[in-house]
Amino acid sequence: MTRTEFIQHIIDRIEAKSYLEIGTQYGYNYENIRCKEKTGVDPGDYEIEYLKMSSDQFFEDNRKMFDVIFVDGLHHHEQVIKDVDNALECLNENGVIVCHDCNPSCYEMQVVPEQHLPGWTGDVWRAWLNFRRFKELTTICFDVCTGMGFIQYKRTLSTLDLTYEDILMMTYENFDKKRVRLLNLKDDNYFKIILNRMEKV
Fold first, then answer.
1. pTM of the full predicted structure?
2. Cα separations (Å) of 53 from 24, 39, 125, 188, 190?
3. Do 128 and 141 contact (CB within 8 A), yes or no?
4. Are strands 37-42 and 66-71 parallel, antiparallel or unpaired?
5. Count of domains in the chain?
6. Phi, psi at residue 39, to the nearest 5°?
């Protein structure tokens, strides 16, 4: 399953009418998403139709609400936390945030600053672990396309007993040993179960 297929399954299931993508880049994902209303945000210079600005600029002025939000901007944990926090503020009831690159394949892929390797994920995993701490959020990472994080405003018992400082101090080696539990990592079959449980917006 590709990231586009993953997101589209969610859009179709909840009958989403509005979609926001943070970090459109060349539009490989954005232009293939089918939704009634689409908004793309990226500070780069690309030949697609999108809002050319940083995510911080967008959220500062934004007054719209969205059904599905895909966070795939700067892959530094600090920025991912800001983007997801802002996304939660403009998410409709029963809406979903999808966070890309939560599951790096090896140490080199998550090194910050970027090492210019294909498929670089950055340390998004640290941001993901941060959101895994909150009981008011359902957070599931699916083993799809370097890790597709699924977030909904639904209370959960599956949380991490960690502080933010614990996460910042965690080595990649320790993360790697416990990644399935830390990420709440699930497979395609579990994604189908979650889809069937989801309510329409």
1. 0.96
2. 11, 12, 25, 34, 36
3. yes
4. unpaired
5. 1
6. -130, 125
Q: Which domain holds residue 162?
A: 3-197
pLDDT tens-digit series, residues 175-185: 999 999 999 99
Task: Determine if the peptide bond prior to 113 is cis (ω within 30°).
Answer: yes
How far apart CA 11 and CA 34 sit, in angstroms, is: 8
Give the residue from 114, 25, 112 showing the smallest Cα distance to 70: 25
Q: How much is the CA Rg of the chain, to the nearest whole Å? A: 16
> Taking the CB of residue 49, how many other CB atoms lie within 10 A of it?
11
User: Which pLDDT band, with edges at 50, 70 and 90, does 161 fall under?
Assistant: very high
- Integer Cα distance of 52 and 169 in angstroms: 35
Work out the number of other CB atoms within 10 angstroms of the CB of residue 81.
17
Reduced to 3 states, what is the DSSP secondary structure of residue 26?
coil
Q: What are phi and psi of 31, to 5 degrees?
A: -75, -15
- Per cent of the chain over pLDDT 90 is 95
- Give the CATH number for residue 54: 3.40.50.150
User: From CA 165, how far away is CA 181, in angstroms rounded?
Assistant: 19
Neighbouring-strand partners of residue 195: none
